[in-house]
Each structure stands twice: as structure tokens, then as C-alpha cells.
Amino acid sequence: MSQDADELGQGSARILLIEDNDSNRQLLSDYLNYCGYTVLTLAAGAEFFTAIAQFQPHIVLLDLKLPDIDGYTLLEQLQQRGEEFQVPVIVVSAFAFQSDQRRALSLGARRYLVKPVNLNLLKQAIREELPYSVL
């Protein structure tokens, strides 16, 4: 786990970003930090639930194609974990088929954005999904 902010969640909304592509992860992390968010990044899904428990993100940005586990499985596991792990998930994926989008949304994702993601749309989606207590 790499932490991209000096302190966990102090003064800003916390975003957990799971993206295996190094350049995509760095670009999104830099952009979200620039927007004032505290970002924790993961390159794989293995530490997903540990990161949620420790970092307590307000939003998760999830790629579906990860090296160790697919994002669909993480969405399924997240649904089964109960109240303490209920966090809005925005899928950011290169999978552009409607069937992929429907599947992710049926598994609890709040939004589905196709790569290459429009950064303004991403910022808007995050703002709309953040709990009012964080805004």
C-alpha cells in the first residue's frame, strides 16, 4: 500500500484508488490530490479490505481488470461484508460493453466510467457520490 497524502484523511475526503496500470494510477492520484482529496492507491486487490478498514475511504475508484482478482469479485465481496464496509464505488474501467456496466452496477457500483476517463466527469461523479458530511 502506498499513501499519497501526508496524513490519513485530515481535512479532505478520502479516496481509495485501485488501478493496476502504473501511469493511470499516477495520473488519477495526482489529479485527485490536486483537487484536494486524500488518496490511497493500490496496484492490486489483495489489500482491498485491509485498506478499507484502515483508511476508511469515503469513495472507492475501482478498476475491474486487476492482476490478482477481478473487480467484479471485489464488488461481490464488498456487498457480502455488511454495514462497516459500505462505501460508494465508482468503477473506472476499459471494459466498454453495456453488459460489463450492467454487471458492475448490479453488484453495487454507483457509477461506471469508461477509460480513458474524462477527468471533469470523474470529479463531478465523486462530488455527487460523497456523503454530505464530507463536503
TrEMBL record:
Where in the numbering of this chain does the Response regulatory domain appear?
A: 14-130
The residues forming the signal peptide are: none
Coiled-coil ranges (or none): none
Looking up InterPro entries in the UniProt record yields:
Bact_response_regulator, CheY-like_superfamily, Sig_transdc_resp-reg_receiver
Q: Which residues carry this modification: 4-aspartylphosphate?
A: 63
Enumerate the UniProt keywords alphabetically: Phosphoprotein
Domain of life, per the record? Answer: Bacteria
Quote the PANTHER family the UniProt record gives: CHEY SUBFAMILY, STRESS RESPONSE REGULATOR PROTEIN 1
Q: What is this protein called?
A: Response regulator
What are the leading ranks of the lineage? Bacteria, Bacillati, Cyanobacteriota, Cyanophyceae, Leptolyngbyales
